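dumping the sequnces here before i forget
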Amino acid sequence: MNRIVVGIDLGTTHSLVAYRREDGQVEVVPDRQGRLLLPSVVALSKDGVRVGWSAREKVNDPETTVIYAAKRLMGRSFEETEAERRSLTYPLVDHKGSPAVPDPFRNRFLTPPEIGALVLRDLKNRAEEFLSQEVSEAVITVPAYFNDAQRQATKDAGALAGLKVLRIINEPTAAALAYGLGSGKDGLFAIFDLGGGTFDFSLLDIRKGIFEVRATNGDTHLGGEDFDRAIVAAWLEENPKLSALAERSEVRDLLRKEAERVKIALSHKTEAEVVLPAVGFRTTLTRARMNALVEPYVDRALSCVRAALADAGTATSDVDGVILVGGSTRFLRFKEAVAAFFGKPLFDSVDPDLVVAEGAAVQADILSGRRKDLLLLDVTPLSLGIETIGGVTSTLIPRNTTIPAQAKELFTTYVDGQTNVDIHVLQGEREMAKDNRSLARFTLSGVPPLPAGTPRIEVTFQIDANGILEVTAREQTTGTMSNVVIQPSYGLDKDDVRNLLKEAFSHAQEDFATRLLVDAKTEAQTVINATERALERVGSDILPDADRVAIQNQVKLLKTTMEGTDGRKVRDETQALDRLTQPLAERLMNQSLSNALSGMALPQEGGSHA
Ligand code: ADP
Ligand code: MG
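..and the predicted 3d for all of it:
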């Protein structure tokens, strides 16, 4: 049986799972009742944990905790969720720094990845039942603005659900893939994603199969539910009796559901009847009236769009097409407004509820290796490395390396007894650290105090398929280690990459000379230090006076040359000193000396020479 990798859209209000069939068609997997969407809702009650539609029905049950919109909490610390906590109606507590929902019936706390895992597990089961085979690998989508922690939390949710997450991809990228963009069709595309509770706008640059998010903007509290609330508010304003009844939450809920129903009905008619005998309410809502109610939201969405275009330094005329995503883009008024704003063709032939899941399935299929005709090649746009002594860059992963990738290198200390080592992670092509982009700094402490050049510090760079870089430094004798996780592409656009490369090219010669000089001086200083130390320790029994004088003279000469700018001369004289001390070094078996003469040294603590 063929291995199937599924694509999953883990949404704020709805989630879906899709896959690509043998015949190449993408199919969204329905549940037993034939429904494609799964509400991203989890209900905790005495008799069990429910997920999806049946969980959503429990909204007004006082005995049940209904958890929704958990995506808003994904990868955030408890403190970071303060604003969200004010609008959510279920309890959230601080559980070891993470927000968590107490499950009073099972004496546990559910963190956002665990809540996400319940939704994902439901989708996994649904797919397995439908396909009659095990499904254990997935591609999951996230908003383009998700940071590393949010992406990692989403991955964790997948793992908890028993899914190997082959890749996390951006929702706008998925939408573009669903429209077949990227294979032959290049250009700059706008992705307008208006869902139930959030609005995300992205500008996606597609060139030769590489998808690059040029800018994102949006509003984490703008979506279909706001329109429903605006409709309800208008009804209450017109009807004081209804307003009094709406003090009760189940009446409010009934009204909100009705508002959503007529809102959707108004996509294909111009007037809708509202009849709610239970609360004695009857009215008619026209499309024109509804459009007037949502007009402020249209303005808010378009101002996000303007801001994104400004950030990317582009105009609507540079945009080749607009892709509509999210159930609320069926709202005709929004469609109209977007079409008028861009004056460009709208991509709306794929169901806006399904388009992200379908795109994820396309990517999943490519990763499954079943299709050889399409290749999404992700490469590092710029070299990655660390700063070493003298402020020079030591590259671990060169640019244009296909990811995922890993590289390891051994480094050592520069100063005797150095117990802390500063690791400065860099991105770029320039020889000197100060000319490259600084990605992160961290300190490896607890290095045993040994002579300079003795500790063996292994630095590992690991980039996963999502472009997330993890840098680890480990001192080999004690095993003490420290690490940092970074997204190197963060805040970097195509123009930046182009400029950085151009700069590196134009400075290549002078960079080379500077580096030669710095490296030569560093090595010279190391050899001088070791030599002087050795001279202090040995008597004439080991080192004849004539040899001592010769060495001292060469040290003096080298020090004078180091004041100049001739890197080659410094190097030659260092080698001369090296030759003079060679017999002595051998006799002493002086580890610190011979070690210091080889290997690359890291700057001392706080000693970034930028
Ligand atoms: P999310 O991505 O946040 O999970 P969805 O993309 O599933 O959200 O969008 C759900 C929203 O789309 C709901 O608020 C729903 O009312 C709205 N919606 C669905 N169909 C229509 C329609 N025809 N007209 C207006 N809004 C619609
Ligand atoms: Mg969505």
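The CA atoms of residues 174 and 359 lie 4 Å apart.
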